[in-house]
Design brief:
Pfam families: ECH_1
Shape: globular
Keywords: Lipid metabolism, Lyase
CATH superfamily of the largest domain: 2-enoyl-CoA Hydratase, Chain A, domain 1
Distance between the termini: 41 Å
CATH topology of the largest domain: 2-enoyl-CoA Hydratase, Chain A, domain 1
Family: Belongs to the enoyl-CoA hydratase/isomerase family.
Protein name: Crotonase/enoyl-CoA hydratase family protein
InterPro entries: ClpP/crotonase-like_dom_sf (IPR029045), Enoyl-CoA_hyd/isom_CS (IPR018376), Enoyl-CoA_hydra/iso (IPR001753), Enoyl-CoA_hydra_C (IPR014748)
Strand content: 15-25%
Largest sheet: 6 strands, mixed
Oligomer: single chain
Number of domains: 2
Radius of gyration: 19 Å
CATH class of the largest domain: Alpha Beta
Helix content: 40-55%
Length: 259
């Protein structure tokens, strides 16, 4: 089978309720063409529909997390997006469950925008991140220009957008974009540790919390009180909430049913 039909994106369950998704085009620095985006969307769809999966980790094979769009493919009109979920098969419509970016290597251009589509980021101390598009007379249209200033201060985001310069993972950590910086080779392990903590929480509450936090940027505070309840009310009425209360009173670990 050709690369477009086989293994450009792989996935495996690495811990209970935890899915590891790997972009598997190391010879292309894990850049995305159309086939890779479609494969990625398929994996994201499977993650979202599987009630036993609660957290997904995204990483890249080889020395680079992702170089973004495959420019050679773009030159012949083959862009790394899908009609339904958008850029890279995830940027436009994200799953209703958390995504962790495990960045073992550079995350540039669409690679950083893929991180911005995730909810948490773990990166290596050797990682460089940035959106270099403007320096090449391009525009970062994978969400970088409107998501980045929601995650870090406006003037810092503007400098990165206009100069195209990359910065270290430590730099992004000090502004809050990267949750944790670890030594090279330890990124996936650190992401799995974080994922296990999330997987131990009530899955319905986690999904509702993800949705509320993602939307909080766009809600006025006067509206947020009622808007949050669209996601919180079904959780409060769930069996899991009752189980969580009972487990706390009985001083035991809860057993979640996801309902």
């Amino acid at each position: 089978m050709t690369e477009s039909a086989m293994d450009v994106v792989t996935s495996e369950i690495v811990d209970p309720h935890v899915l590891l998704i790997t972009i598997n085009r190391p010879e292309k620095r894990n850049a995305f063409d159309g086939a890779t985006a479609r494969a990625f969307e398929k994996v994201i769809d499977a993650y979202e529909s599987d009630d036993d999966l609660r957290v997904a980790i995204i990483t890249g094979a080889g020395p680079t997390f992702s170089a973004g769009q495959d420019l050679a493919a773009a030159a012949v009109g083959d862009f790394g997006g899908t009609e339904r979920r958008g850029g890279f098969g995830v940027m436009g419509v994200r799953p209703h469950k958390p995504l962790i970016a495990a960045v073992e290597g550079h995350a540039l251009a669409g690679g950083l925008e893929l991180c911005l589509a995730c909810d948490l980021v773990v990166a290596s101390s050797a990682t460089q991140m940035g959106i270099p598009e403007a320096a090449r007379a391009l525009v970062a249209v994978g969400g970088g220009l409107f998501r980045l200033p929601k995650r870090i201060p406006y003037h810092i985001a503007m400098e990165l957008a206009l100069t195209g310069e990359s910065r270290s993972a430590e730099y992004f950590a000090q502004w809050g974009l990267v949750n944790k910086v670890v030594e090279p080779g330890e990124v996936v392990g650190a992401a799995r540790e974080l994922a296990r903590k999330i997987a131990a929480s009530g899955p319905l509450a986690v999904s509702a919390s993800v949705e509320i936090v993602r939307r909080a940027y766009d809600w006025a505070e006067t509206d947020a009180w009622s808007r949050q309840m669209e996601y919180a009310d079904p959780v409060m009425a769930s069996e899991d909430t009752q189980e969580g209360i009972r487990a706390f009173i009985e001083k035991r670990e809860p057993v979640w049913k996801g309902r």
